[in-house]
Fold this protein.
Amino acid sequence: MTLTHHTRRVLLDMVRLGAGVILAVGIARALNLSNSYSAGTITLITLLTSKKESLRQSLWRLITFFITAAITALARLVIPWPVVCFGLSVMLLYGICEKLNILPVLAVNGVICSHLVTMPHFSPGFVLDEFLMVLTGVIIALLCGQMYSGKNARGQLRRRMKRDDGILATWLYELANALELGTGGLPALTDYEKQLQEDRALAADYLENSYASHADYFAEYFDMRIKQVEVLKNLEWELASYQVPPAQTRTIAGFIRYLAGYVQETNEPKAQEDRLKDLLGHLRHEQLPATRQEFEHRAILYHILMTIREFIDLKRQFVEGLSSRQREEYWKQQDQRH
């Protein structure tokens, strides 16, 4: 039985979480820390986010530890009741975390604060004990977070891009055939659009778990394809709603069939843009419409070709937005494989 990417990811997360918690608690107990299981809790909370966010939160947890310790120490000096001291300390910590846009770290600070307000005597040794607990939890979380395989995710995204491009090319061929045959029914885009959304989510996950500066390439690529689907849905509506004469239908079908041959990741659409410009130029030099019906048919054809140009423009914008590093990392490697 072949496991889906999502299932493999869930299993990997289960292993990371279990191993991380066990390691954190084990190390904390070996160090004879007072709240060893809290180290495991910190590891758990930290691992529930992406690699980038885990690193960010871990740094803030270490920084805000000292803020938490200072607030709790001052609160204990003036408030004799631990419950009130705890509540007011958490209230102040919430305000600080909200101001710094680091609310996810508040939960761990709350745990630390609860330990500090309930200890019999506020001593430097106990504060050090708590800091080592936090440090153990975040270090283990960062180490276990490295179990995410960027190479595997990248390979999966590559395969999905190739598959999606193949489906899109096939859809365009089917559209051209349906137009030429006049069958009336046009191919649906619903399943393809849903698939692109799933692939975009996978690309976003890769982006959040990669430190590479060019990691947004996949997300941008799927964004481009999703926008192209919206254009194609408009094109479908136009073709289904307007009455296009057979001669003009053949013109549209012929260009769509030509376009389908260039649905490739590394294709720069300059040739397709030039061919469309030539087609539009040819229309401008044709004899002017003699009747109202001919004028309407010419306007419909021009409008449909403008929609197709929008489809091409989206790929051009994607290509123009690529950095030199992205071209080096993705397109040149593709050329070498071919």
The chain is about 80% helix and 0% strand. The chain has a mean pLDDT of 86. The CA atoms of residues 85 and 315 lie 59 Å apart.
